[in-house]
Amino acid sequence: MDIEKQRLSIQAARLYYQSDYSQQQIAVKMGLSRPTVSRLLQYAKDQGYVNITIIDPSEDLDLLASDLKRKYGLDTVVLCNSPTNDAEEIKNHISKKAADYIHETVQDGDIIGVTWGTTMHAVALQLQSKPVKGVEVVQLKGGVSHSQVNTYAAEIVNLFAEAFRTIARYLPLPVIFDSVAVKTMVEEDRHIRRIIELGRQANIAAFTVGTVEEDTLLFRLGYFNKEEQELLRRTGAGDICSRFFDKDGTICSEELNNRTVGIDLAELGKKEKSILVAGGQRKTEAIRAALKGRYANILITDQFTAQALLR
C-alpha cells in the first residue's frame, strides 16, 4: 500500500509541479477524486519527494551587488533580473534599469557625457523627461562613421538632451583618424577643443563596453585595416570610447589610442559618476577587464553577468 501511495504521489507531483497540470486535470488523468490528488501532493511534500525553493530576486540581487562592489572596488552596482541569459533580453532589461538610474541621478548643473552604440541607444530611448536646469549633454567620442552601419551617435545625444531639457553638444568627427598628425591638427580647432574640454569637465559619464570579436560594431565601421583588427583581436579584451584595452585593463595599442578622438580612459575613471552599462556572455570578459582598469565606479548589469564576473 505504501509503495502504491508513493508511486501515485510522485506521479501526481510530476504532473502538478513539472507539467503545470491543475489538481482537477490530474484527477481526471489519474482517475482519482480531486481531494485524493490534494492529499497525494501533500504526502509527496511531507515525505520529501518534492523540494520547493523560493528565490527572492531582490534579495539575491542585493547579495550579488554587494559581492561585486567588494571584488572590483565599485561605488555602486545596480542589477536587474533578466528572465533569460540572452543578449537582447539582457540589453532590454539593463537599458531600462540604466535609464531609470540616470533619471534619478541627474541634478541641476550636471554635465553628462555619453557615448554611442546599440546599448546606449536602448538607454536613450527609455529616458524619462526631467525638469532640471543648467544641465549640459556632450559626446565623449567622435561620432562620424566611415560606413552605412548606424552608430546612433547623433540620436543618442539628442535623446539625452531632450530628456534633460538642454541642447546637445556634438563631437562631429570620426572617432579614429588615419594618422596622429591629422587628429592633432583637427583637435586644435577652437570649437572641437571646447567640446573635448566639456567632456573632460563632465561629472557624469554613461557608456558601454565593446568586444574584439569579428562582428563588433567598431570593426564593421571600417576604421581598422586587417592587420589592426588582428592585433586587437589577439591582444585586446574590449573597448570603451573606442579605446582598446587588454584583459588587465591596460591600453593594448598606444599607436591606435593616439589616433582616437575623445576622452582618455584615465580621465573617464576619475568622474564623480562613471557609469558602465553592459551585460551578456559575449561582453563578460570586456566588462571584467574594464573593471580591472578602474574605468567605471558604477556598474549596471544583470544577474547572469554578475555571477560570471564573480567566478
Automatic annotation (TrEMBL):
Keywords: DNA-binding, Transcription, Transcription regulation
Pfam families with a match to the protein in the record: Sugar-bind
Presence of keyword Metal-binding: no
Source taxon at top rank: Bacteria
Protein name per its UniProtKB record: Sugar-binding transcriptional regulator
Entries under InterPro entries matching the protein: NagB/RpiA_transferase-like, RNA_pol_sigma_r3/r4-like, SorC_transcr_regulators, Sugar-bd_dom_put
Domain Sugar-binding: residue ranges: 60-311
Organism: Paenibacillus agri
Gene Ontology MF term list: carbohydrate binding; DNA binding
Membership in a protein family: Belongs to the SorC transcriptional regulatory family.
